[in-house]
Design a protein that fits this description.
single chain; about 425 residues; alpha/beta; Aspartate Aminotransferase, domain 1; Aspartate Aminotransferase, domain 2; 7-stranded mixed beta sheet; 11 helices; globular; binds pyridoxal-5'-phosphate
């Protein structure tokens, strides 16, 4: 395999790896041998340092018992928030790491709607977004009396903001990989008298984000995708420093109280970002995430973006002709409007193609209906990995290997 049918030579790809300023990060991840991992957009790979960090925390639990809470466990949400802040263009004190995205959206919806006494009560969710964002908005509206609306996919946001108090938008769409202009969109929503909660699940760690510079006031995102925090690692929540003292978030728990250990009967919200905590968190999973965020502090996000675009372009260049010949639709946006993934649709065979690739050690993922996603994570993928993965894709499709009936059987998690 020195050349694939598209004429992209392995030596040209190896030259890209030799000139890659991020190449050294790959050694700091524990990747299984023989696996080409293109699913870091769903669950990031394990930083080698995570294992020792978790082990150390287990030892700390064993040796220090409850004293551990005063040895860094209790402060972890804001300490990790401060580590993460530069990766998303936030300042110290603007980010906490807590709960999951679903709960964090609920908290922000209540916090924002609670500040409004007027007529505007509608919550707008983005059609075609990751479903939990809409589900939790619907749940919030049922108990708050706010009206829930969907923004139709591919429609003009400006035409749907009448009477809207808050809109929940993804910066990068999880299916298509389409990137929104966060600055222009934030400005538009504010000009209509509404607020926007940005969901950065598919952009944090995937591309440079300037939350402060964009004028964003509220954002959430997860840490187990591009940020490599580990399965179930907590989400983050950002509130601009000028908007942290505006009332209550509705999941008012003891860790978000102004004095959690005063054990007052009445809730008094903390007047900083810790207000968005709820209750007790896992010191163990925070340890894994801290190891990862410590690594991110060394990363140049502009280099991440450049490599991400170059890798997705390489993957598409290696496969260009094959989509048309095999009825696969390439819905990947143009590179300037792309997150860090390639999105392909084959409603008949997409699932089985992904299964056949997994059987070969090439891990991508599948989302209904018909969507094959391949995520590009510049810290632990080389250009050679991408070239090899494309070669496998070509072989699976051209050989008809995916027709094996066993590859069409669905598991519980796809
Ligand atoms: C992955 C993802 C989520 C996950 O939400 P959790 O509550 O953290 O499980 C939410 N929104 C988007 C856009 C996602 O991509």
């Amino acid at each position: 395999m020195s050349k694939n049918q598209n004429g992209v030579s392995l030596t040209s790809v190896q030259a890209l790896d030799q000139n890659d300023p991020l190449a050294n990060f790959k050694r700091r991840f524990a990747l299984p041998k023989g696996v080409l991992y293109l699913d870091g957009n769903s669950l990031g790979a394990q930083p080698i340092a995570a294992k020792k960090a978790v082990d150390d925390t287990l030892d700390q639990w064993r040796d220090e018992l409850i004293k551990g809470w005063n040895q860094g466990w209790f402060d972890a949400p804001e300490r990790l928030g401060n580590l993460l802040a530069p990766v998303i263009g936030a300042r110290r004190g603007e980010v906490t790491v807590t709960d999951n995205i679903t709960l964090n959206i609920f908290k922000l919806l209540g916090y924002i709607i609670g500040q409004r006494q007027g007529e505007r009560k509608a919550v707008l969710s983005e059609g075609g977004n990751f479903p939990t964002d809409g589900y939790i908005a619907q749940g919030f509206c049922r108990i708050s009396g706010a009206e829930h609306r969907f923004l139709p996919e591919n429609s003009d946001l400006a035409e749907h903001l009448d009477g809207v108090a808050v809109v929940v938008l993804s910066q990068v769409n999880y299916r298509t990989g389409k990137l929104r202009d966060i600055t222009a969109t934030t400005r538009l929503v504010h000009a209509h008298g509404a607020e926007v909660i940005w969901d950065l699940a598919h952009s944090a760690g995937a591309l440079p984000i300037d939350l402060n510079g964009s004028g964003a006031r509220y954002a959430v995102g997860c840490t187990y995708k591009y940020l490599n925090g580990g399965p179930g690692s907590p989400a983050f929540l950002y509130v601009h420093s000028n908007y942290q003292d505006q009332g209550w978030q509705p999941l008012s728990g003891w860790h978000g109280h102004a004095s959690p250990f005063a054990f007052d009967a009445d809730y008094i919200p903390a007047n900083d970002i810790s207000h968005f905590r709820t209750g007790t968190h896992s010191a163990i999973i925070y340890a894994a995430l801290e190891a990862s965020l410590t690594l991110w502090a060394e990363v140049d996000m502009a280099a991440v973006r450049a490599k991400s675009v170059a890798m997705s372009e390489l993957f598409l260049a290696c496969l260009g002709d094959i989509f048309h010949r095999h009825g696969i639709e390439d819905i990947t946006p143009a590179s300037s409007q792309r997150g860090s993934q390639v999105s392909l649709i084959d409603t008949q065979n997409g699932y089985a193609i992904v299964q056949a690739l997994i059987a070969r050690g090439v891990i991508g993922d599948y989302r209904e209906p018909g969507l094959m996603r391949f995520g590009f994570t510049p810290l632990y993928l080389s250009f050679e990995d991408v070239w090899l993965a494309a070669q496998h894709f070509r072989e699976v499709v051209e050989s008809g290997e995916y027709r094996d009936p066993q590859l069409h059987v669905r598991g519980a998690v796809t």
